[in-house]
Design goal:
Type_1_exporter; 6-stranded mixed β-sheet; alpha/beta; 64% helix; 609 residues; ATP-binding; 4-stranded antiparallel β-sheet; ABC transporter transmembrane region fold; 22 helices
């Protein structure tokens, strides 16, 4: 059994009763599929006037003879009706019996489908929930290597494929095989030598179909990977639409998209051809067997007279009845191969090890009392260190600014403090406790983060700002907006704080979006504030508004400011000048100017801009 199939079993445990009932109803369906065909036999015998006459009511002689007892009892009642009321009433009895058995067969089919539907939809929901929990919990570093579109394809498309494919296994191992088994047993009772033909046909058919289905899983995996790549292209095109248009790069993105859908077309056609061939091939082989049965069985009926004509017609009906489950088995086996490929992609994400997790008995810290200390930190994203033997102490209430050229490692400090990444060597402590020993939610509750990119969601201003404090009142939200210097534009919006700001907040200007990000951090009211180049993307006028908002927010808080524009951090208690992952200077603004070193050069360069 495939390992991915075994991994799905825990997801079915909550639906054990549905599985049990599905199996029970499938067994009953398979049984009544044969009984419903057999019920046609007495009807034909009545029509042809060949009903077996049973003069007296049969006696039940134990469970071993229940089949013969049931058959004799039916023929007894037919004989009685024939004698007392004429053949039309006997015919009415057997027709009613046919209707009743077919009704039961279809009722059990419906009930089996009802339970498998609940199983499939329930497992789909649970798998998607587990996968979403996983992709939210995985560290930021995972998404710097993976395409977001591919992860979306795995969660939406591949999980759906798992649902559609895998649960056909229940039909594959219960419903269809039992339908064939019950039919074969009955056929054997009617004529054992005719049944030999059918038993030869089934393994030959299975062998041919499995040969055609070879390599289907590998091609399905390729198609699903290509589907993920396709969604990535669409996601990246929409996210960077302004850049695509402004650089007239539409043709390049169209070419990438067209190349991808052409590859997907070829793979889909190849898979589809094999899938489509399974059903007609199994039907053709079945009809070939029926034709041989007609020739051989016709001889038994017409020439040798060893088989009754009505029994032969029922036998043929049963033989044809095997074709439908045989086709279903061949289709389901192909479908399972698609499902195996999809499951491989789903579990690849679910089994990614999250390196940044809570330790056992992690410390829940709710206050910040003394200092943040970074000691001898080395950190690398790939092979080369971005931070080299970096040490820094930030006292409670201080505003510490990190400055330096792009690539000097400033933003990496923000990523490490919030544990988006973990240090390779060295330690970060808050009040003497290593952040690796702290419960992650409590660590991040101590911090407010305002990034260079204002990340807002397609929702109302109120929903965006209350992200860190969901029970916030409208008054608290308005107060946070005022501190962030944002209420002056929010109050003029049609619905005020209940105005939807569009995808990524694109109904607002850059400065307005940034002030909402600051308001979100203000409302959270954390003791430590991390500002990662919060004003670098703004024009001069917006920067003034945002700078006032930042100064309001930083009052009575410990702040770590990563700054590109040096004019914004002149009032900082400590300015740390970084170069290639190391501290080259530190001090207050006037002290650093007096040193006439790297900081002074940076200030002079910016004053000339």
């Amino acid at each position: 059994m495939d390992s991915n199939l075994l991994k799905l079993i825990p997801y079915t445990k909550a639906y054990t009763s549905n599985i049990v009932w599905n199996i029970i109803y499938n067994i009953l369906y398979a049984l009544f599929s044969t009984i419903s065909m057999l019920s046609l036999l007495p009807m034909m015998e009545v029509l042809f006037g060949k009903t077996k006459s049973i003069p007296k009511e049969p006696v039940f002689e134990g469970i071993g003879g229940i089949m013969d007892y049931g058959k004799d009892m039916l023929y007894y009642y037919i004989s009685e009706l024939n004698r007392e009321s004429g053949p039309q009433f006997a015919l009415l009895l057997v027709v009613s019996l046919v209707i009743f058995t077919f009704l039961l067969k279809n009722l059990f089919n419906y009930l089996a489908s009802f339970h498998i539907m609940h199983l499939k939809n329930g497992v789909l929901r649970d798998l998607r929930q587990t996968m979403y929990d996983k992709i939210i919990e995985l560290p930021v570093s995972f998404y710097s290597e993976k395409r977001k579109g591919d992860v979306m394809a795995r969660m939406l498309g591949d999980v759906g494929e798992v649902q559609n494919s895998f649960f056909s296994i229940l039909e594959l191992i219960v419903k269809e095989p039992l339908t064939i088994v019950f039919a074969l047993i009955t056929m054997y009772v009617i004529s054992w030598d005719l049944t030999l033909f059918v038993l030869i046909f089934i393994p030959i058919s299975g062998l041919i179909i499995s040969k055609i289905g070879k390599n289907l899983k590998a091609k399905s995996l390729q198609a699903q990977n290509e589907g993920g790549h396709l969604i990535s292209i669409v996601e990246e095109s929409l996210t960077g639409l302004k850049v695509v248009k402004s650089y007239n790069a539409e043709s390049r993105f169209k070419k990438n998209f067209n190349d991808s859908i052409t590859r997907l077309l070829k793979l889909s056609n190849s898979i589809g051809n094999k899938n489509n061939l399974a059903s007609p091939l199994s039907e053709f082989m079945g009809i070939t067997t029926i034709a041989i049965l007609l020739w051989y069985g016709g001889n038994l009926v017409l020439v040798q007279k060893t088989l009754d004509g009505a029994e032969f017609i029922i036998y043929l009906t049963l033989a044809y009845n095997i074709l439908t489950p045989a086709k279903a088995i061949s289709k389901a086996s192909y479908s399972v191969k698609n499902g195996l490929a999809a499951a491989e992609r789903v579990f690849e994400v679910l089994e990614v090890k999250n390196e940044i997790t809570n330790k056992e008995n992690a410390i829940v810290k709710t206050t910040f009392d003394d200092s943040i200390s970074l000691k001898n930190i080395n950190f690398r994203y790939a092979k080369e260190n971005v931070l080299k033997d970096f040490s820094l102490d930030v006292k409670k209430g201080q505003t510490v600014a990190l400055v330096g050229q792009s690539g000097s490692g400033k933003s990496t400090i923000a990523n490490l403090l919030t544990r988006f990444y973990d240090v390779n060597e060295g330690s970060i402590t808050i009040d003497g406790i290593s952040i690796k020993d702290m419960e992650m939610h409590s660590l991040r509750n101590l911090m407010g983060l305002v990034t260079q990119d204002s990340i807002l969601f397609n929702d109302t201003i109120k929903a965006n700002i209350s992200l860190g404090k969901e029970d916030a009142t409208d008054e608290e939200i308005i107060e946070a907006l005022k501190i962030a210097n944002a209420y002056e534009f929010v109050k003029d919006l049609p619905l005020g704080i209940n105005t939807n700001i569009g995808d990524s907040g694109n109904k607002l200007s850059g400065g307005q979006k940034q002030r909402l990000s600051i308001a979100r951090a203000v409302l959270k009211n954390p003791p430590i504030m991390i500002l990662d180049e919060a004003t670098s993307a703004l024009d001069t006028e917006s920067e003034k508004f945002v700078q006032v908002a930042l100064e309001n927010m930083m009052e009575n808080r410990t702040s770590i400011v990563i700054a590109h524009r040096l004019s914004t951090i002149q009032k900082a208690d400590l300015i740390v000048v970084m170069q290639k992952g190391k501290i080259v200077e530190q001090g207050r603004h006037d002290e650093l100017i007096a040193m006439n070193g790297t900081y002074n050069k940076l200030v002079n360069m910016q004053s000339l801009e």
